[in-house]
Each structure stands twice: as C-alpha cells, then as structure tokens.
Amino acid sequence: MEEKMKSIRFKLWAGMMALVAIVLLLLWLFQIVFLENFYNRMWTSYIKREVITINQLLEKGEKSAFESKLEEFAFNNNIYAELADKNGNSIYITGSSSSAGKMPMIDSNARNGVIQEILTDKEVDVPVTHPRFGNKFMLIGLPIRISGELSQVMLIITPLAPMKDTTEILKGQLVYIIGILLFASLIISFLISRSFTSPILEIKKVSEKMAAGDFLARIKTKKQDEIGTLAETINNMGEQLSKIEQLRKDLIANVSHELRTPLSLIRGYAETIKDVTGNDPVKREKQLGVIIEETERLSRIVDDIMNLSQLQSGNAKLNKVSFKINVLIDDAMKRYDILSEKTGVGIVRIGSVKALVKADENKIAQVLYNLINNGFNHTSKGGFITLKIVEENESVRIEISDTGKGITQEELPHIWDRYYKAEKTSEKRPTGTGLGLAIVKGILEAHQVAYGVESKEKVGTKFWFELNKVNGSS
Known about the structure:
Elements: H1 2-33, H2 35-59, H3 63-76, E1 80-85, E2 90-95, H4 97-102, H5 108-118, E3 124-129, E4 136-146, E5 149-159, H6 164-211, H7 226-277, H8 281-313, E6 320-324, H9 325-334, H10 337-343, E7 346-350, E8 356-360, H11 361-378, E9 384-391, E10 395-402, H12 436-447, E11 451-456, E12 460-468
Parallel strand pairs: 7-9
Antiparallel strand pairs: 1-2, 1-5, 3-4, 4-5, 6-8, 9-10, 10-12, 11-12
C-alpha cells in the first residue's frame, strides 16, 4: 500500500510537471514560431483600420483634411499611400522619402488586377517582395465611395519588419525563463503532491488501525477541503465504532452475568439436594422451587435474545390483525395485579377508545408487558404506573408513565440499547432480562410506527407509541 501511495504521489507530480511543460511549449510556439505571422497580421489590421478612418474624410468631401491626415500618417508609419481612380490613374501620392524610394515596383497588369478586385467592394491584402533588396511588404487595397458611388481606391504599401533579431532575443530570454519555471514547478509540484497525498496516507494508516480493532485512533488533519471532510467522517466513524465496541463488551458482560446467576443457583441448590436435603421433603421442595424459578428465568433470557435477534435481522414476521386496544391493555394490567400488591406500586388506566387498531396483537402485547415491567423496575413503593390511551385522527396513542427517578438527558438516547443501565448500580431487577426496551424498539420499528420516550429527573418517565386505526372504526 505504501508503494501504491508513492505511485499516486509520483503520478500527481508527473501530471503537474506535464501540464507545466505543455504550457511552456505553447509559450515557445507562440513567441518564437508564430510571432512574425502574428505581428504582421496585427500591423496590417492597424494600418487598415487607421486608413479607413482617414478615408472617411475624403468620402465626406473634406479633401484638404484627408490629404493632411494621410500624409502625416504615412510619414509617421513609414508607408507609401496612393489614391487612384477606377481606371488606375493616380490622384494623390504620399509617403516618407525613404519609403517612396524603396517601394517595390509593381507592373501595371498586377496593379490593374488589384484595382479591379477592389472595385468589387473587397479589401485586398497582397504580400510582395522588393525585386532588388528582397524586403517584404504588404500591399493593402481599400475601396472609397464618393457620393455613394465606388469610384476610387486607396493603395497602401507598408514594410513588414524582419523579426529575426527579435526572435533571437526572445529565444535567449525564454531559455532562462523556461529553466527557472521548470525548476520552480519541480519544487512546487512536489510540495503540492506531498501535501495532497500525506493526509491520504494518514487516513489509510488510521483506517488500518480501526480495522485491527483500535477504534481510538484518530486522523490529525486540519484541512478544510474534501479530504478534511473525509478525515472528519472517519474520525466520527471511529467514535461510533468505539461506542459500539463498548456496548458489545457490556453486552457480553451482562449476558454472562445474567446467565451465571441462575446457573449458579441451579447448581448450588442441586448439589445441596443431592448431598444434604435430599431426605427432607420440605427443604427439598423449597429448593426445587428455586431451581424451577431460575430455569424459567434462563428460558426467558434465551427467548428474549432469540426474539431480539429475529427483530434486528429483519426475519421477524408480523401477523397483523384488527383488535380492540382497550381489551389488550386491560388484559395486560390484570397480569400485574399480584406484582402491584407485592411491590406497593399502583397501576391505573386513563382514557378509553372504541376504535380498532391493526397490528400484530401478540407482539404489541409484548411491548405493553415490557414497558410495564420497566415501570415496576424503576418505581419505588407508593408510586404509580399510568397507562393512557388517546385517540387521534388516524391513530391511537398509548402512553405508559411511571413516577420513578427519571433519566438524564445524556442517558436518554441509550436506553433502547441492550442491557443499558441508566442507573449504574448492581441492584437486581425485580422482573425482566435487560432486553425489554431493545425488544420494544425492534417490534415498533418492524411495525413502522412512531414511538419515543420523555423523562424528567425525580419526576418520572413516559414511553409512548402509536398504532394505526382500522379505516372506518371510531
């Protein structure tokens, strides 16, 4: 993996260097290879643009101003300018003495051909070479309208400056510039590639530690980009995995404790019956009763674990039927009459509905039993457990409240976890296996209904859930 990461770093560095090389190559081409052509086009465009502006004076009838402007422009830019009629006869000629003496001679046939092409209302650009000196020039022809009629033409001959010396100077400069840029880009691209890949390498190392079970490993990056977001996400994942790992350890410890206690009692009483009280019917019956009670407790633990596993795996099947929730709640309350008398905790119902609900009746009964059990486990003598039924538009809301110690806001999100204890004590539960609320959560989520819990310290806790009404029932 280390070699692959180095390969990514090299590829990133090589890619940036290739980009720099392409940019420098394009710079070389445009500055050296295409410079002369580019300059000549720009110069020709400039001459045409200025002469067209001057020609507008002639078209307006301002001949004197036209000649003055054209003469000034011709001498300032070392050009030869000639105004001719449509028959090719010269009307006005101007230009610097040096340019006038060195302008190439154009034979009359070529000159007339250019004039005839201009008279078709076209602008003409013709490169020419001085027959004696070999200098390069550009012949520019422009049409001129007098009183709306195309009757005259403007011929401009401008020298094209040789770019060889300029090109050599630029070549020397570009060699130094390219060398400096390549060296700078070599260092900068290496630093950028290392800056980009180092956090990825750290993410890889931390991910490997997490895969090995070290969920406390964290990525120490301060980047505010996508890599920083990825690092933060992995850190959050590690934090969640750490919590899950702690819950797993707690689960194993609690399951072991839950199973060890009844098994120890069963073994202890069985050995006592075998060695000591086997011939004493009274003691034997009492001890056998404890063994049976603990065996039933073991059975409940195993059943709850199996039920929870089915719910969490999504394999639990729901047998939804229509039933009266009032009747189900009354039956559940009757089962706790004896426990209510024994513990001194009252259990009452508020409200009544006639509407039918549609759900798995047996599993909703288990939800009620588990929530009532939870209320007894956390309510002291003299307290109350209240079952409230509220009919809403499309559902029935069931609330199970107790007057226990309540749960802190920090612990509230965790109470649905298996074997989670809001009160970190070793006090034995009067009923239940420690899986009750986790099973409640699984059943209600399987039904896809709303549920929740509210609690206030030293006041009590209220669990609630909603069941869909059967259409037309009320």
